[in-house]
User: Which sequence fits this backbone?
């Protein structure tokens, strides 16, 4: 019997169209736009000016505070301007635009593919290197990794979980990375273990990736302290709290961080970035992005430089299909539709999905039939139908008591609802309002 | 047979009589004194229960009026000076005088001027759309058109115009309760001084982007050029964050600013047509 988290969850069709496609390098774009806020925390502060010539891997924006991350140039060329551009929420965000000229890397970056498994650096040095490289959680939440590695005082980390679940339908970037860079990921995991001073790490992989499970089971034997666990397929298993519950059986208390139950979760992509930062001195300037969609000619996995416009990736995968209704950045369950295809790839972009018009259209909403399927689907044990109605009626004190802030916005309730009710839309609204109330109360 | 009826009537009469006595005694014992003026004031109020005064309804406002030492902070925007005068007479106090106000949506970005660049198919309320992104047009400041203000209005004073994308306030119905001002997530609605015949000169824009960006998203956006500020003889116009604002309390409706506006962001409404100078 395979493990999984106990309550809730849904089973959307996998649709992993690009699972068999090896990771290819995307040709360099003509210009990149690198946003200053690609992580949770305060935006980075630019250290270059207009007209400066930068090399690939050069620091272009310094982290501003502890919860923030450095940003490096992903290409070599000339800084065209430091300006704003509308992001997926439509609001302008500051960023650095660089015109690409050649591909000249910083001298201290080791670009060779040679594998080196030695763990000869001490914990503090690993954390420093991770911070310097601007590594953030690549699963999508983009929380600065170095902050995670320094647990709050009095908390003890016992176990490191490496998230190879990739529970979102369509996405295959983590899957491909696991198949192609298994040793690097495991070495990166060893680095993270050393930085956290933990003896045990578990890689969680869902059953629908048997090749990755087999490969990791084989490889992990030669890495001390790392084991692997095969998990049942269920969305949203890749959620931090769900993964901890599935692997360790521990439940993260309401409003607490995972470290409260002695666990830290990192994505496989993050582990790979850690390996590259510590061993090869390479900052986080590229990531694997899945480009997929039922109407797309060649669904693929590309290694993409940060800041590359989405349109360049679509072009490389065979061009925008005629009947595209939506371009989604991220997975189909939690990703957001983007408003224009020039939107750049950021550190958190795990995939780009082109939805057909027929797929993306919302269906007609009818009344709640009290079937309670949303309650059964909610992985946080909430009552989505109630949170929706109460948020709709602006009863924010009640939804706060009903733990609306625990919602992880996975979308399982909206997915499962037979009446096609927009549960998550209203819950997000309630969350935003309750968040405001909590913030004013703190002041 | 008839005796049963007599007994029944007698029993019920005794029961009813004793209950009346008990109720009377209890009512005397637990009597709460209520200022009779509260009822009088409430009667004078419009009875709309709109909450425009800041209280939970007309009764609550009446109580507040009676209990207040003066009426300086209290004003019923629906009744206006007339009703406040009546209340002042009842209470023997002096009411503040305020100009009547009317709500105005500071956006003229109808579809013709402000084309859609994306398509939103989520829940059709402005507040929720704004959580997802800045709206279907390139202007992040403008009206989203799903009518949160329309839902909030109790007086039938807002007309939803889905085909145009921006609702219209019907000045004659508007009582300036301010419910729509609260409801609009983009803070577009302003309560302005009400001029005779509903005339108004107003900057129908909230776009604080730089001129070039603003006009790209919407043809009638305020670009912050400041021409209106220079032409205004009454210092009623201020320019802040690339956006002009006409203070309706200072404006004298001289209509000097609309012709100088290069984008047509300043509207003059309900005026007779201008004479064409040959």
Assistant:
């Amino acid at each position: 019997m395979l493990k999984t988290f106990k309550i809730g969850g849904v089973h959307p069709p996998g649709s992993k169209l690009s699972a068999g496609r090896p990771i290819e390098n995307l040709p360099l774009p003509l210009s990149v736009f690198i946003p200053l806020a690609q992580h949770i925390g305060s935006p980075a502060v630019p250290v270059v000016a207009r007209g400066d010539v930068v090399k690939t891997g050069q620091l272009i924006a310094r982290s501003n505070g502890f919860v923030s991350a450095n940003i490096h140039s992903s290409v070599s060329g000339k800084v065209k301007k430091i300006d704003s551009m509308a992001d997926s929420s439509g609001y302008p965000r500051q960023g650095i635009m660089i015109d690409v000229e050649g591909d000249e890397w910083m001298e201290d970056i080791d670009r060779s593919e040679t594998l080196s498994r030695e763990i000869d650096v001490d914990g503090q040095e690993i954390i420093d290197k991770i911070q310097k490289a601007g590594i953030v959680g690549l699963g999508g939440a983009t929380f600065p990794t170095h902050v995670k590695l320094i647990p709050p005082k009095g908390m003890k980390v016992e176990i490191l979980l490496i998230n190879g679940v990739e529970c979102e339908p369509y996405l295959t970037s983590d899957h491909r990375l696991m198949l192609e860079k298994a040793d690097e990921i495991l070495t990166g995991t060893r680095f993270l273990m050393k930085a956290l001073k933990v003896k045990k790490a578990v890689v969680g992989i869902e059953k629908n990736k048997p090749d990755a499970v087999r490969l990791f089971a084989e490889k992990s034997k030669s890495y001390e302290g790392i084991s692997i666990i095969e998990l049942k397929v269920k969305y949203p298993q890749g959620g931090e709290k769900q993964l901890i519950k599935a692997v360790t059986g521990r439940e993260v208390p309401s409003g607490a961080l995972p470290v409260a139950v002695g666990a830290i979760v990192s994505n496989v992509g993050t582990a790979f970035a850690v390996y590259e930062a510590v061993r090869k001195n390479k900052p986080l300037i590229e990531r694997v992005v899945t480009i997929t969609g039922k109407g797309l000619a060649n669904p693929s996995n590309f290694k993409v430089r940060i800041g590359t416009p989405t349109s360049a990736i679509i072009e490389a995968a065979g061009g925008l299909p005629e009947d595209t209704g939506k371009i989604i950045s991220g997975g189909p369950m939690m990703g957001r539709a983007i408003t224009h295809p020039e939107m750049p790839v950021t550190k958190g972009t795990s995939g780009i999905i082109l939805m057909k018009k027929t797929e993306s259209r919302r269906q007609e909403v009818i009344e709640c039939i009290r079937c309670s399927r949303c309650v059964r689907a909610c992985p946080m044990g909430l009552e989505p139908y109630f949170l929706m109605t109460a948020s709709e009626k602006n009863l924010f004190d009640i939804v706060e008591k009903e733990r609306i802030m625990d919602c992880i916005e996975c979308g399982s309730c909206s997915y499962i609802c037979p009446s096609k009710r927009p549960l998550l839309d209203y819950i997000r609204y309630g969350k935003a309002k309750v968040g405001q109330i909590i913030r004013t109360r703190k002041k | 047979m008839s005796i049963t009826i007599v007994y029944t009537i007698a029993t019920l009469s005794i029961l009813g009589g004793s209950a009346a006595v008990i109720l009377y005694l209890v009512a005397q014992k637990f009597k709460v004194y209520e200022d009779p003026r509260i009822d009088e004031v409430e009667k004078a109020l419009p009875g709309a229960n709109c909450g425009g005064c800041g209280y939970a309804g007309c009764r609550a406002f009446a109580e507040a009026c009676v209990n207040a030492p003066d009426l300086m902070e209290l004003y019923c925007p629906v009744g206006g000076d007339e009703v406040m005068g009546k209340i002042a007479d009842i209470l023997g106090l002096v009411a503040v005088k305020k100009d009547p106000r009317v709500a105005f949506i500071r956006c003229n970005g109808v579809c013709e001027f402000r084309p859609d660049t994306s398509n939103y198919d989520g829940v059709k309320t402005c507040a929720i759309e704004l959580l997802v992104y800045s709206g279907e047009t390139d202007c992040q400041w403008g009206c989203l058109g799903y009518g949160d203000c329309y839902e909030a209005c109790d007086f039938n004073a807002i007309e939803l115009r889905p085909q145009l994308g921006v609702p219209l306030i019907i000045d004659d119905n508007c009582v300036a309760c301010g419910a729509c001002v609260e409801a609009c997530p983009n803070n577009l609605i302003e309560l302005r001084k009400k001029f005779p015949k509903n005339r108004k000169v107003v900057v129908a824009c909230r776009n604080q982007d730089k001129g070039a960006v603003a006009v790209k998203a919407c043809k009638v956006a305020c670009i912050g050029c400041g021409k209106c500020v220079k032409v205004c003889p009454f210092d009623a116009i201020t320019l802040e964050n690339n956006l002009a604002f006409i203070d309706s309390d200072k404006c004298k409706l001289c209509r000097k600013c609309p012709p100088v506006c290069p984008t047509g962001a300043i509207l003059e409404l309900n005026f007779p047509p201008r004479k064409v100078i040959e």
